[in-house]
Amino acid sequence: MHQFSDEPMERSKSERNFIQTLENLYARxxxxxxxxxxxxxxxxxxxxxxxxxxNAEAFFQDVTDPDLIxxxxxxxxxxxxxxxxxxxLAREMGIRQNLQ
Length: 100
Prior knowledge:
With 100 residues, this protein is mainly α. The chain is built from 3 helices and no strands.
């Protein structure tokens, strides 16, 4: 027979992550709060910066108008600089994730 106790049941890491994800989603949808940790926010920012860099490179590869070439080069350099800066900040924050 199973004994019930007041102690919380141990949850696996994946269960805790799932529950935290649902809580964050609920908070953002209904109250406008962002309950993600600073690490999660930083990782999302880094992913977006990486996407921005790749999009800028794709734009540079596709641009044909000579008047836009300087703009395309600027976009690539700016996005690359932003990404590198965020990666440096993440390392300083002690974030050790498998990033691109």
